[in-house]
Amino acid sequence: MAANASDSEIPKQDDLSLKSVQQLRGLLKEKGLSTSGKKNVLIERRNAKVLQGDIDALIRTISELSENWNNKVKIQIRIERLSEYRMSYLQLRNRIISLLADEEIEDELHSWRELLDMIDKAVDAAHEYLNKESNLEDQSSKGSVHKSHKDSHQPSNLKLPRIELPKFNVLTGNALQTIEGFEVTGANYQPAVEMSQTQMDAKAVANASSLRDLHDTFINRTRALEALGEIPMSHGCMLLPMFETKLPSELLEKWELEFADTPEDEIDLELFFKFLNRQVVSKEAGERNLQNNS
């Protein structure tokens, strides 16, 4: 998976150019790592969601500490941790972008910029607090009057920005139910990932009836588009990925293996429907044989 790439070799800038994305993909390919796949994108976005929760909690802690003086050391420690989180967040973003098609990159970048800007504002506000604290310490060491020294320990009016985290609507149905019981904390990060991977890797058991229904549903949807004046076969690049997500995992694996060496421009809806129909016919024949032998 792309998440195993060396962090030191991943671009760190906030705004990735197309050239940077291509270089990142080349690096992953050299290491034999995947540069595509919806499953990898989903897992990386779950990782990002957990990290966002940690960042939000850390910014709230800094905000609470900044309301009182004499918290200089605690805030310095948390600024360093927030900077590390920001770096990890950038690396996660870059790994996700490396898995996307070029036309999806700009929208993806936009969804990440808001939180990155808020992290930077929080760090700037925290540094402002530290500067005020340092100035007051200097005044005290130079023999400031008692009143000035007393007033310096009044609560600060510094307010850190309110955080509105970007929301990735990538989980629904069984996938959402799998991890929604986990509280968003660092301690639950690994258990949530492991449970999600177990759920996604589990092979669905499909019978002939369910496959036939799935096949007929796909056909009916394309006919409905034709009735609206659309030409579904010309939109295969959009429809095919959606249809693939509805396949049982065992069938999706067969589909990917069977056409692994087929050029992408030859893989279309017609080929997909022929493949699915063969699987339905094979499944129906197998079930009939079982009934005849029983």
From TrEMBL:
InterPro entries on file: SAP_dom, SAP_dom_sf
Where in the numbering of this chain does the SAP domain appear? 16-50
Q: Where is this region: Disordered?
A: 134-157
SUPFAM superfamilies tied to this protein = SAP domain (SSF68906)
Query: Pfam families, per this entry?
Result: SAP
For this protein, the record's Gene3D superfamilies field holds: SAP domain (1.10.720.30)
Family annotation (PROSITE patterns)? SAP
Q: Which domain of life is it from?
A: Eukaryota
What's the protein here called? Answer: SAP domain-containing protein
